[in-house]
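Shipment paperwork, digital attachment
Item: protein structure file
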Amino acid sequence: MPDLNFEVTGAEIIPFAATPTLGFTVNITNAVPAQLISNVSLSCQLQIVAPQRRYNREEQLGLQDVFGTPERWGQTLRNFLWQHVSVVVPAFTDSITFTLPVSCTYDFEVLSTRYLATLQDGMVPLLFLFSGTIFYQDEEDNLQVSRVSWSKEAIYRLPISLWQLMIEQYYPHTNWIRLQRDVFDQLYTYKVQQGLPTWEEAINKLLATAHQEVKP
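Attachment content:
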């Protein structure tokens, strides 16, 4: 039976994708020599290993919405899911290198987006947990099927600057916020009634009014 091992060796921005997408370079090697792997229906659970990096004061403040106050991080700072990714790996013998595409939402309702957007510099420790189905040929050239062992995983440290560059390319100088429809309708009515040409001007005017109200 095949014995596949995985290594993540790099990452890059995939240009012209429908959504912001990072491509991770994955190398697979088969411990069984000269065995033809017809293809692999591969699944990957990608986790962010949050406890394996340090956070400066500004990052700690920004992540209170994610992990709570820093004094609680001993209990709350844990790995969390970023993505589930599936891909079909083509035929190979001994080893193959391919790109694993990971779509990156910029929705701030999503935990991973809030986390990544708060980081200022350094690396993001990632854990790739692999599973899936292997189709291969035995010594008599008969097609056989086996499973990728649940113990197969790989670690990669992603430069946060690469994620920041990708987001800036897709959404220059922009953040996204999702609103309930009734709240959006109220904001839209306010914008029209005030004769304001942009959403930014509508929100800025509301913020200015709120600041005036809280002044002593």
